[in-house]
Design goal:
By secondary structure, this protein is an alpha/beta fold. The protein has one domain: Rossmann fold, CATH 3.40.50. The protein is 31% helix and 20% strand. It is built from 8 helices and 11 strands. The strands form 2 sheets. The protein has a 9-stranded mixed sheet, sandwiched between helices. The two termini are 25 Å apart.
Length: 251
């Protein structure tokens, strides 16, 4: 029982396209966190900012999931016509959660939109549409392709946290995005690039756990177990954060 109680609590941001509809989390995220030794908790789209702190105090790590386009106004731009599916209250709630988690030094992992969210929250900007803004880019959002199908390669930066986690210089990933990091936010560095030089992973330059990947490893962990390393590394960081908090509370 004691071992189970020591598992880190991982918050998963939820998806809600319309107010009044249900808040959902894709089960692949839940499975991957469980498989990595964490306890996943769904964070609903909170409207009252005072309630953010209750979740942050409860959690040992937070995973920002994929979803709709981030409103370009969040990084000071007018929207291109290719922007779709903006959910303003999701932007507000995720940016608010990120700010509090970041200030606490909590381990943070971002996937697809979640990686873009990290970048925007730290003052970075995005390509609103890869095909329009980078004419010579390769495919990044294939139609009618299974979520667990590997699609294009990424080149991992030597010395990066990502390289330490995966132990590979190059690997193939799935891909379901039409946006990408354009300019890096504060204290961020590139962890991986696609062959057409699209940023595929970002991480912190500071001594903190902050990692974002542009692909969807949660969809790959069953078929390609190597991708579970990302979730294990994250949950281990969350477990250490949990232990440090417990130690601080008894001092």
């Amino acid at each position: 029982m004691r071992e189970k109680m020591n598992k880190p609590i991982i918050g998963l941001t939820s998806y809600q396209r319309e107010k009044g509809a249900y808040c959902s989390v894709v089960t692949d995220y839940i499975y991957s966190v469980f498989a990595a030794g964490g306890i996943p908790v769904n964070i609903p789209t909170i409207e009252d900012e005072d309630d953010y702190d209750y979740y942050i105090e409860m959690l040992d790590g937070i995973l920002f999931t994929g979803g709709a386009d981030i409103n370009p106004r969040c990084y000071g731009e007018e929207p291109l016509k290719e922007i779709n599916g903006i959910v303003p209250y999701k932007d507000k709630y995720e940016l608010g959660l990120f700010k509090r988690a970041y200030e606490k030094g909590m381990p943070i992992f971002g996937i697809c939109r979640g990686s873009q969210l990290i970048n925007v929250a730290l003052g970075g900007r995005l390509y609103q549409d890869i095909n329009r803004q980078i004419p010579d880019s390769f495919g990044h959002y294939p139609n009618d392709t299974p979520e667990d199908e590997l699609y294009h390669s990424v080149n991992i930066v030597e010395g990066s946290r990502l390289k330490n986690i995966l132990g590979e210089e190059k690997l193939y990933v799935n891909s379901f995005h039409h946006q990408a990091v354009k300019t890096l936010g504060s204290n961020l560095v590139v962890g991986a690039l696609s062959s057409d030089h699209i940023i595929e992973s970002i991480e912190s330059t500071e001594d903190r756990y902050l990692l974002g990947v542009q692909w969807h490893p949660e969809c790959l962990t069953k078929k390609y177990p190597a991708f579970l390393k990302l979730f294990k590394d994250f949950t281990q960081a969350a477990a250490a954060y949990k232990l440090n908090r417990a130690s601080d509370s008894v001092k």
